[in-house]
Automatic annotation (TrEMBL):
Residues 130-250 form the GFO/IDH/MocA-like oxidoreductase domain. Its EC number is 1.1.1.18. It comes from Staphylococcus arlettae. The gene is idhA. It is an enzyme of class 1 (oxidoreductase). It comes from the Bacteria. This is Inositol 2-dehydrogenase. InterPro entries: Gfo/Idh/MocA-like_OxRdtase_N, GFO_IDH_MocA-like_dom, Myo_inos_IolG, NAD(P)-bd_dom_sf. Keywords: Oxidoreductase. PANTHER family: BINDING ROSSMANN FOLD OXIDOREDUCTASE, PUTATIVE (AFU_ORTHOLOGUE AFUA_2G10240)-RELATED, NAD(P)-BINDING ROSSMANN-FOLD SUPERFAMILY PROTEIN-RELATED. Pfam families: GFO_IDH_MocA (PF01408), GFO_IDH_MocA_C3 (PF22725). Residues 4-122 form the Gfo/Idh/MocA-like oxidoreductase N-terminal domain. One of its GO terms (molecular function) is nucleotide binding. The lineage of its organism: Bacteria, Bacillati, Bacillota, Bacilli, Bacillales.
């Protein structure tokens, strides 16, 4: 069976998903929707996509389309989810669902009422290292977990124009870490405490945002987690996890292009981590899309549901509240 796809939003992440979809034997990309599609005619032709439009409804209303990929700006997500659900289209949606919890609830309800699959784009769940860690924890090999520590640092801050519309550090960046914490601990977060400031670029503070943060999470099962974020890491994209339990500890380090260590009189040299998320999670993006397609074809559950997206967004908003009040916030 061949699935017919339409992609809504042809920016960096939309083009990435298209490049993977093109290689899948069970997929045909019929449509692409983007407000700037007139400026992308050469790329669209090279990608072999039949139809382009500025109105995503052209995709949703096409009876031949089985599934859509939502990579458009966040403020469009909820309306698209509701419209596509009503038309019976399966949905892959990049995070977050919305900037508003009330709107996100509307999207959740729309999906529940339909008979579709919706997978959220939390690609880190599909990373081979984190999947193996999840498997070990699921089997109980570490016993009771005491602490989880997640380090996530970008190579450099995004432009201020991006900051203005990002929804803030917690909604834009840390939301991946909130999802990873829930995924690994397999327990719900019941309390958050967040502190942070604009320590890398003070201009970010002018837009009521931060670039550096420490977040403490308390889980229903009694475990504790710490997330450290920074918008700048001069040595590359820093993605590490450490977890401590009754029977030992497990850490997942940064991936490198090689394990070569060059020992010289002036010191030891080794490869830096990948520059950014596109390089670090290249394989995970492929796996998450393959899993979405398999869930449609085999009528199985998606690994990362809209409920997972809702809970990560809820945690992000509670962290914003904690930062403003300097108080822990319960969920």
């Amino acid at each position: 069976m061949t699935l017919t796809f339409g992609v809504i939003g042809a920016g960096r992440i939309g083009q990435l998903h298209i490049s993977y979809l093109q290689t899948h034997k069970d997929v045909k990309i019929k449509w692409i929707s983007d407000l700037n599609c007139d400026k992308m005619e050469e790329w669209i032709a090279q990608a072999g996509i039949e139809n382009k439009t500025k109105d995503h409804r052209d995709i949703i209303n096409d009876p031949e389309v089985d599934a859509i990929i939502i990579c458009s700006p966040t403020d469009t997500h909820v309306d698209i989810i509701k419209e596509a659900s009503a038309q019976g289209k399966h949905i892959f949606c990049e995070k977050p669902i919305s900037m508003s919890l009330e709107e996100a609830e509307e999207a959740v309800e729309a999906v529940k009422k339909s008979n579709i699959k919706l997978q959220m784009g939390f690609n880190r769940r599909f990373d081979k290292n984190f999947k193996q860690l999840h498997s070990i924890l699921s089997e109980g090999e570490l016993g009771q977990i005491q602490t989880l520590r997640i380090t996530s640092r970008d190579p450099e801050p995004p432009p201020i124009e991006y900051i203005k519309r990002s929804g803030g550090l917690f909604m834009d960046m840390t939301i991946h870490d909130f999802d990873m914490a829930r995924y690994l601990m397999q327990s719900e977060i019941v309390e958050v405490y967040a502190s942070g400031d604009a320590l890398v670029n003070p201009e970010i503070a002018e837009y009521d945002d931060i670039d550096t943060a420490l977040i403490t999470l308390k889980f229903e099962n009694g475990s504790i987690a710490m997330i450290e974020n920074c918008r700048r890491s001069v040595y590359g994209y820093d993605q590490r996890i450490e977890i401590l339990g009754d029977n030992g500890a497990i850490d997942v380090g940064n991936e490198q292009s090689s394990t070569l260590n060059y020992h010289r009189v002036d010191g030891i040299r080794r490869d830096s981590p990948p520059y950014f998320f596109l390089e670090r999670y290249s394989d995970a993006y492929k796996v998450e899309m393959n899993d979405f397609i398999d869930a449609i074809l085999n009528d199985t559950d998606v690994l990362c549901s809209i409920e997972d997206g809702y809970k990560a967004q809820q945690i992000a908003l509670k962290c914003q509240e904690s930062l403003k009040t300097n108080q822990p916030q319960k969920l």
